[in-house]
Design goal:
358 residues, alpha/beta, 8 helices
Amino acid sequence: MALAKITLQNFRNHAASELVDTAHFNLLVGENGAGKTNVLEAISLLSPGRGLRRAALPELAKQDATGAFAIGASLIEQGQVSARMGTYTDPARPNRRLVRINGADASASALSEWHAVGWLTPAMDGLFTDSAGARRRFVDRMALAIEPGHARAVNQLETALRERNRLLEERKDARWLDAIEAQAAQHGASVAQTRASLVARLADELSALPAEPFARPILTYRAGGPTTPEELLAEFARARPRDAAAGRALTGPHRDELEVVMDGTGQPAASCSTGEQKAMLIAITLAHGVLASSGCPSVLLLDEVAAHLDPVRRRALFERLRAGKAQVWMTGTELAPFSDIEAEAAVWRVSAGSLERL
């Protein structure tokens, strides 16, 4: 068990919703636009980052409310409450997300010290045909669920690279560049090494899974440059004239790539059918769920996942989720696709931002 007694106040279309008596499987059923994904988004915000929609904070508060929202939950381990956590905004500061854990103010990054949250949404279906940047964000989100400090390293790297670009443009004293490049190299090496380690662990986990009924992906991490602080520092210094002309750094972790091919055929994921891409994305999500749940309680959010799978793959998905440690939240427009797990699941009917326990 992971989360229990989840509350939403003035969040999206939910004025005041509460989910209690949660289970290993939790189903949210209702028409499109009823507010099912909004519940998943709220849960995703009980972790660092911008949530599964990456929405700006002012967009999250219910439109006819005060401009602020609140989300709370209790973390349950072995039948006991181990933590109470919440995130909210203040009407006076709508662009700042605040966090409290066990009644004390905390940083958003501290949430991942208590539990890991992962998700799969329809918006992610185009991941393999999207930009390299989208795949880096995908890897970073997975890494954050396992290494809470990863987000800080990514942010510090991006800040250092922006400052380096400015210094190159303004042709500042080389000593300034030396200092900022030292920071970029240190944070960049940390980011690259965390990404490489995660992809390697995912690849190992995937290799142990059967290729059917889900297409098994083979993952490769391609570094965008050196991956040690010393080598990165030397590369930044050497590339100053080139990067100044380009207006950006052309080498470094911000150029990393996640390459995915389908096992058996060697076909790049971007060239596979939409069904094969979906199956590989599910396989990666499940493998990550295994890794995330090995160190702390974990939650897996699956938005409209069952509707896009045939009965054989649906049953296989449920079997893997049942055997896993993560608490699972799924959405759907009807209960029929969940018939194999309905009897063991907590089920809510969602309608116009209100919840009814079935």
